[in-house]
């Protein structure tokens, strides 16, 4: 949320190590495709690389598995689960984030699966609060992306098709100066 956002985003994209994922940036977004742990790693690094302590920033994320027809980048689905950005995430991911997310399980008893995913957030210290169609989380960026990795690992093992959509916000002026850790 600043005048020079394009340069900030491009710098962040270039600083994120993407050797373990297929990557494409277009007019609307950056897409990472590959093993679940590798995708979360690259997504976390991109978000953390974009963070500035005094700038309001919002990220929109979609994680999914099971959508038929998407074959581009299949060579990255090799079982490696590489996470080349972990040192950066640990070093720079200790800033407060607020998140709202929705988890959708397709073709299953979805309410039980959603409840499990929300309970996992509680176990990981992210203080989930429910609202219509979303769950709110608050914690550090490092905690949030560790949660996404854990939730997606559970979903990957138990569900054939799911989508997790999240909006992450930092330094929102709506918080009245309470956005920093």
TrEMBL record:
Superkingdom of origin: Bacteria
UniProt-listed Pfam families: Ykof
Domain Thiamin/hydroxymethyl pyrimidine-binding YkoF putative: from-to ranges: 1-70, 97-174
InterPro entries reported for this sequence: MTH1187/YkoF-like, Thiamin/HMP-bd_put_YkoF
Entry-linked Gene3D superfamilies: 3.30.70.930
Protein name listed in UniProt: Thiamin/hydroxymethyl pyrimidine-binding YkoF putative domain-containing protein
Lineage of the species this protein comes from: Bacteria, Bacillati, Bacillota, Bacilli, Lactobacillales
């Amino acid at each position: 949320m600043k005048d020079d956002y394009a340069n900030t985003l491009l710098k962040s994209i270039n600083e994120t190590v993407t050797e373990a994922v297929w990557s494409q940036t277009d007019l609307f977004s950056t897409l990472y495709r590959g093993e679940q742990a590798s995708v979360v790693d690259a997504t976390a690094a991109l978000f953390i690389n974009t963070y500035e302590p005094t700038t309001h920033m919002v990220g929109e994320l979609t994680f999914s598995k099971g959508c038929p027809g998407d074959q581009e980048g299949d060579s990255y689905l090799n079982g490696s689960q590489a996470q080349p950005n972990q040192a950066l995430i640990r070093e720079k991911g200790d800033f407060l984030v607020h998140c709202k997310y929705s988890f959708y399980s397709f073709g299953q008893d979805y309410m039980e699966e959603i409840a499990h995913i929300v309970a996992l957030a509680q176990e990981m210290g992210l203080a989930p609060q429910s609202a219509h169609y979303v769950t709110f989380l608050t914690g550090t960026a490092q905690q949030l992306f560790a949660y996404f990795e854990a939730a997606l690992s559970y979903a990957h093992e138990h569900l054939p098709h799911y989508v997790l959509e999240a909006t992450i916000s930092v330094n929102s002026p709506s918080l009245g100066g309470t956005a920093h850790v």
